[in-house]
Structures are given as C-alpha cells and as structure tokens.
Amino acid sequence: MAVDASVLDRLFRVVESRRGTDPSISHSARLLSRGTGKIAQKFGEEAVECLIEAVAGRQHELVGESADVLYHLIVLWVDAGVTPDQVWAELERREGISGIAEKASRPRG
C-alpha cells in the first residue's frame, strides 16, 4: 500500500489544531503545552528508539518507531512555527544536488 506525503500534511493540520486545546484530552495539546525543551526531548527519545530498532534489524518495530519520530517531528514543527510546505520546498531545492555539494554549500559558523 503506497501512501503519499499528504498524510503528513493532514497530521500537521491535526496537531496544529490541538495547539491551545485541553491537554487532558489531547496528547498533542499536552506535548505543545510542555514547551520546546520537552517536545525536543521527546523527539530525541523517539529518534533513539528508532535507531535501536534499525540496528537490531527489527523491521516491524522500526516502522512503528519511524511513525513515532515523524509524529514528534511534526509536533516540533508546530511548536516552532515551521510548516510542511517549507520543508517540502527545501527538499525540492536540494533535489538533484549531490549531498556532498549541498553540505559544502552551507554557511559555517
């Protein structure tokens, strides 16, 4: 079953709609109410769990952890005021550029 990136756009809209709502009835609202530090910490924890499953070769668990990483990344975007369109535009900008060349073109500092 193929799923396109629009599922991420829909998830973004759902998370965005939870901003400022009752944290006792929405996990997204609870995360957003805790602030950037806690959101970033949770994203990091999920990323580490994803890496553990990848290294262990547990594909099914990796799929679930990957979904968790994407969800928590979207919560981080909502908190930071970043939209999926901004990220998609950056990916399109980089499309067709060597990863080595793209990294070398970034400002240092």
TrEMBL record:
It is found in: Cytoplasm. It catalyses: 1-(5-phospho-beta-D-ribosyl)-ATP + H2O = 1-(5-phospho-beta-D-ribosyl)-5'-AMP + diphosphate + H(+). It comes from the Bacteria. GO terms for molecular function: phosphoribosyl-ATP diphosphatase activity. InterPro entries: HisE, PRib-ATP_PPHydrolase-like. Keywords: Amino-acid biosynthesis, ATP-binding, Cytoplasm, Histidine biosynthesis, Hydrolase, Nucleotide-binding. Pathway: Amino-acid biosynthesis; L-histidine biosynthesis; L-histidine from 5-phospho-alpha-D-ribose 1-diphosphate: step 2/9. Pfam families: PRA-PH. Its EC number is 3.6.1.31. PANTHER family: HISTIDINE BIOSYNTHESIS BIFUNCTIONAL PROTEIN, HISTIDINE BIOSYNTHESIS BIFUNCTIONAL PROTEIN HIS7. Belongs to the PRA-PH family. This is Phosphoribosyl-ATP pyrophosphatase. It comes from Acetobacter musti. The lineage of its organism: Bacteria, Pseudomonadati, Pseudomonadota, Alphaproteobacteria, Acetobacterales.
